[in-house]
Predict the structure.
Amino acid sequence: MQRISMANVLDIFKTNFGLSLRNNLLLAICYLLLIPIIRGTASLDAVRSAECLEQSVTLIGIFLIVPLNAPEQSKAIQEIIGTKKWPQWLILFVRLIMVLVTLIILTSIFAGIMKGNNCTFPVIPYVTGTIISELALGSVGFFISVLSNSVIAGYLTSMGYFLFNFLGDISSKSIFYLFSMGMGNYMEKLWLFLLSILLITIALICEKRKKF
């Protein structure tokens, strides 16, 4: 296998930003701009702030993570993959890094705006917890998307997971619960983080073994 240089990786970053992230990033930003209109983000206490972050902001994890392998689900692009120097699993890994950095930036900015609007909450724990929930929500759909080669199936899985949490079908004591910050529980976030890493790892391994 040909050695992958730093120049190759940087080239992947530049190419894949436009291919798999740019449009989804614009969608995520537009959605975040709607949240203050839909539910308000000013003068919230710690519980209400947690609800805003976990029940609204976390949805950007679906927008950004689930469709990461969408471009390759086109037959025309699948044929091109075989001619590239870089394996597809590595391209997806680089995209995941790009998305993680994007989630950190977007969530931090949104939390900063909430603080500027007199919301009361511990910034670092809440931002970290929100990012983990975003990662968990997105990685479930990404996993299904890779295995089924269907982004639609990935979207439906992530939305189903969110709705099960939102409607109370998943217990607040479950390790799969997305909205634990408002109750001051962070152990669930550790489990969600581990679940995300597991699902992403399995998805990348499956992608590595695929033959287009």
Notes: The two ends are 17 Å apart (CA to CA). Helices lie at 6-38, 46-55, 60-65, 75-81, 88-116, 123-148, 151-166, 187-209. Residues 79-83 have pLDDT under 50 and may be disordered.
